[in-house]
Specification:
This protein has 183 residues and is mostly helical. It is built from 9 helices and no strands.
């Protein structure tokens, strides 16, 4: 259970470092109270990644365990390559007149649809013995990266270029993918 939590936490945390979602949360934090933004993150990730974990768990009952490991490994390697090679596109940041918590939750939920962290949660939950540990790791990582983005995110890119952060993130995904395929 701890392994699944830790693996999910590390992958989601590293994947979101410097990502558009973290930048979006810094923008929201400039407008709203930190506690409201964190609560919005919690609600958004619980709904978004909870759905992914549920779907991944259902798929795991249909596919052989070895094939799941190979599939997960290939997906992580692809995520790693995409993270290193492709730039994030600027997306229109929509704000809704629904209060800070709901605005943050909806912005996060919509911004993360089909994102690599949502797909990571789905992939990890496919062969997880404890899918709830995957969801807990994901929620914890998103809250941690959100808080880091709010507090120190702008400072990080002053000292470390974003391409280095993206390269490290991509390499971690590739390493997790290779290890998952071997074991």
């Amino acid at each position: 259970m701890y392994k699944e939590f830790l693996e999910t936490f590390i992958l989601v945390f590293v994947a979101e470092m410097g990502d558009k979602t973290q930048l979006m949360l810094m923008t929201l934090a400039a407008k709203y109270k930190i506690i409201d933004v964190l609560l919005g993150i919690f609600l958004g990730v619980l709904l978004n990644h909870g759905t992914a974990v549920f779907i991944g768990s259902c798929i795991s009952n249909l596919i052989d365990e070895y094939l799941l490991h190979v599939f997960a490994g290939v997906v992580f390697i692809i995520f790693g390559i995409i993270t290193i090679v492709f730039e994030d596109e600027d997306e229109n940041k929509k704000q809704y007149g629904l209060g800070p918590v709901i605005t943050t939750a909806l912005t996060f939920f919509l911004g993360e649809m089909g994102d690599k962290t949502q797909l990571t949660c789905m992939t990890l939950s496919m062969d997880a013995y404890y899918p709830s540990a995957v969801l807990a790791g994901s929620v914890t990582a998103m809250l941690a990266i959100g808080l880091a983005g709010i507090i120190i995110g702008t400072s990080l890119t002053k000292f470390i270029p974003s391409y280095i952060i993206k390269t490290i993130s991509g390499l971690i995904f590739i390493i997790f993918g290779v290890v998952r395929m071997i074991i």
